[in-house]
Amino acid sequence: xxxxxxxxxVQLIPLKSYLxxxxxxxxxxxxGVLIRRNAIVIFMSVELMLNSVNLIxxxxxxxxxxxxxxxFVFFIMAVAxxxxxxxxxxxxxIYRNTRTIDVGFLNKLKG
Amino acid sequence: xxITLLILIPLLPLIGFLINxxxxxxxxxxxxxxxxxxxxLGSFAASVAVLFAFKEGGSQPIVVSLFDWxxxxxxxxxxxxxxxxxxxxxxxxxxxxGSLIHIYSIGYMKHDPGFGKFFSFLNLxxxxxxxxxxxxxxxxxxxxxxxxxxxxxxxxxxxxKNTDFNNAARKAFIMNRVxxxxxxxxxxxxxxxxxxxxxxxxxxxxxxxxxxxHVVFAITMLLFVGAMGKSAQIPLYTWLxxxxxxxxxxxxxxxxxxxxxxxxxxxIRSNVLYTLAPQTLEIxxxxxxxxxLFAASIGLxxxxxxxxxxxxxxxxxxxxxxxxxVMAYSASMFHVITHAFFKALLFLxxxxxxxxxxxxxxxxxxxxxxxxxxxxxxxxxxxTWAIAGLPPFAGFFSKDEILAxxxxxxxxxxxxxxxxxxxxxxYMFRLLFLTFFGSFRGTPEQAHHLHESPASMTIPLVIxxxxxxxxxxxxxxxxxxxxxxxxxxxxxxxxxxxxANPEAFGALALSHSEEYILMGVSVGVALIAAVVAYGMYISxxxxxxxxxxxxxxxxxxxxxxxxxxxxxxTVFVKPMKTLSVLLVSFGEFFIDLFVEGTGKLxxxxxxxxxxTQTGSIAYYVFAMVIGIVVMLFWNLLLK
Lengths: 111, 639
Description:
Order of helices and strands of chain B: HHEEHHHHHHHHHHHHHHHHHHHHHHHH
Largest sheet of chain B: 2 strands, antiparallel
Oligomer: heterodimer
């Protein structure tokens, strides 16, 4: 089986940079989830974390010339779209019931 | 002999118990009484048939084995019945008197809400009592022994909404346990010594033992402890007067005619063993004589009609044990029979009086009842005459025979018995005079309500009165021109004992003239006591002092039953209670410490864990992230 070649354009940027970028994005996402109280911002942060992972998958896939990771990413994007639909619907319902989207207000899970 | 007929005897009351016991809420009252009484009557008919079959079959003892019950190693205890002279006599008393009392109860308990319950208990009692006398070994006797104790408990506490009655029931049960322990140990010793509990086998082996054997002495003493409890002898007699809390037919059937004579039955059944242990017999005689005198003296001052009869029962049982102690086994059995007649009659008569008096039992508030309750009066008078030992009624023959044997054996015992006999005559005539003579001392409503009892109650009274009057004729002594059929009938029972200890069974050595003198003395003493009672309670129309009046000296002590109940309370009951309270608090401290400590520990830990659940999502996410970071560090750096 012939070894697929890596496009040169991808080689211009080293793999390390991709990793740093996606790690930075992931940490920004975590910090966003931890620090912000607005549900929509938290939600966006979660999406950021999700996509930082996608970025890593794509980067490795390109460097290794293995397309299976790219298939995975498509799946993740499809599922994430569905998740966004549900998540946003929940946030809308929360807003309708409580007139706020401050997560600090939603502490009813207290044991 | 048809075995089915024999099995029917205990089976019928059991069936009656099952029908009435399971269905008494649904069966109409009329049917309940009918089923209960028919079960008893059917059992009586079967007993009579068995008696005739036994006589036709040559009067040989028969052991009918029903099935193998316990088989452990060498020990084999079959479930079998033994038919001989003794069990037949007991069968006749139990089913005969039992049937009459069942019929009487239909009238007496008519207005009671527990009518069905009452009849089922009575039938259950008959079943166990029949098992007791029919069993062919000590273990089956013990089943019956415990069963009648249970029924006695249930029926004393029959009106279980009254705490006093419940306490009386518990007292009877617990006191009987003391005796039962002795009986049980006796059975164990028999197993140990003879390797079997079958009567025939035990007695066959026992005839080979020497007189005064230590093991036999221990066995007989232990068995006698059992008899003391069941037959209410000193020191275990105090439950019987309290047992009068039960309905009156129960007092008549269980606490006068049948159950309390189980101890005497057992001693006569074990006559071979007792004959081999003269020391035990000596103790039996002394206990019997002392009980006879002691209980009679308490009876002198009692004012509750049933309490008088209860002490009288204890006293008469004492006579029976006196008879056993001087080896007058058949005379004791004779007294068991006559006593069953006249004491059942006395109790049923007392029941009739109580029924008419709207549940009044104090003779100080009675009087003059003979005009309103003529049948009850006449039958009660006959029974009084009989128990006082005046000829020609039943009690005269049986009591005199016991006293004659006692005289022959030991003059002192005879003297004690004679004194008790005088007291018996006095308190019985006192009871008769205070209840039926003089003027009425109750309330006007009671006077208005006075009535003779219904036929279902008076017919048993009349039948028992006839038996009390004529019952003595089965044992007319030779001195009076009779042949003593009872003694002749029972004679084969004592063959083994005669063989084991020939000297003890000498014929009555008294000459006829001596017997006449003894009879004259005891009749004279009884008559004098009766006349004294007449003088006090009719001529002077004295009425016992009311409760509130202070009594002094001896009278006070006797009136309070020698403070025996109080003594037992201080010596046994109170220390036991203190000990149990102590143990309870001790146990509660340690066990609660452990059990509750475990619970508290879990609760405290849970409370700590609960603090981490703040409900803030940010906190949870933070914890999660920290956790992930820690795991990453662990996996990547530390490994």
